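re: ur question from earlier - yeah i can do the single chain one, its not a big deal. heres the input i used so u can compare w yours
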Amino acid sequence: MSELPASASSHRIRINWLNNLWPWLCAASVALSLLMLGALLTLLVVRGLGHFWPANLEEVTLNSGETFAGQTVREVALPQQDGDERLYFTGNQDIDGARWRWVAIEEIAERSHPVDLVRLERTPWGDFIGRLAAIEQADQRWEGEAAWRHLTTLLALPINQRPDSQLLLSTANGQTLRLPLTNVLSAQAPNAMAWWQKTHAWGEGVWRFLSEGPRAANTGGGVWPAIFGTVLMVILMSVMVTPFGVLAAIYLNEIAHQGRLTRFVRIGVRNLAGVPSIVYGVFGLGVFVYGIGGSIDEWFFSDTLPSPTFGTGGLLWASLTLALLTLPVVIVATEEGLARIPEAQREGAVALGATRLEMLTRIVLPMAAPAMLTGVILAIARAAGEVAPLMLVGVAKLAPQMPVDGEFPYLHLERKFMHLGYHLFDTAFHGEDVQAAIPLVYATALLLVLIVLVLNLTAIFLRHYLRRQRGSEC
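and the output i got, formated as tokens:
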């Protein structure tokens, strides 16, 4: 009998210890989650947005007497050798045969940053790094500083208004090159730029990334077609999934008899949310593209066969596939909101003479609007980042035509489109130059994360607004 109080005291101490430890574990989990999220965003911001900052150019002289110019990218330690190696972006692929160069640190004799080094973005062959010797235009010739000032003036003009000019360029090792002005997209002399000039150039680079189309096998240019295609597809998907998801949730929670069959259907809907997305892509390819799309071609576009119109991947089938993929999310979120509405609200409306339809449309649905909105925004956030099903039902590496243009019917649902998620995948794994694609991968990933973040913040603010307006507890 004397051992019982000691055992009870020990048990009480253990419970108190666990109760005191539990809040710390929860706080540590939240802190770790925020730390990982902050680390992810920091990595994307530094590696993505840092790509557009005009980095200084170096002129490097090796112990062998060879000279080249380029931008320092990174240094790596060699575990099996003495010393480190430095990676330079040297450009000039048409002259040197490569745009990247690894150099052992011990082989470098001298490094300098001449102010006359320039970096030209051109087509084809990518960037040129060297010096601008002169500009020839008709019977006129500009050299030195006058040539640089005249070049910046010409590049400020619209492309169709630029005169026929020739640029005389020289590399760091003395090789010369003649380049038409029509091949030059932009020019910078980063070593001679002040910080405010670099900030302005950085802003222009970010704007071009957001407003221009891709080029050089997606390793250059911008992502505007991918942004437009992503937003348009998500809007169409939302228009398709919202009514079906809300109506299905209303039927399951408000109309259907709550028996074994309804519970089975509810379990099936929740399980559909865990099906791999590529399975939905296969379903969309077989049913929407080949089944429905092929039938539409036979009925209405037989004169264009065997070239398919709707019987191939396009914006419509991609939107329908993602609507099917996100349908369980909308149903579950809406049904949870409907289940939280007190039964007294329904009974009070019916007791006051409202019909069942009036009770649903004027009492239940307005109170469940925050939950419905949450489900739709969660569906949008998921659809914005999906890639696997889109690869089968309509996304393209490069879409020559936008889904929206000035030709009737203005919205072309049968056309292929670009998507940020697929653009990210294609740039990372199928680009011609992996090193050049890495910064664009980070920048595209940052843009995709920001879009999803904006959608989630929009859901929070709208839900809070609706709660205040309706006084709902959902």
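Residues 226 and 420 are 5 Å apart (CA to CA). not sure if urs matches, ping me
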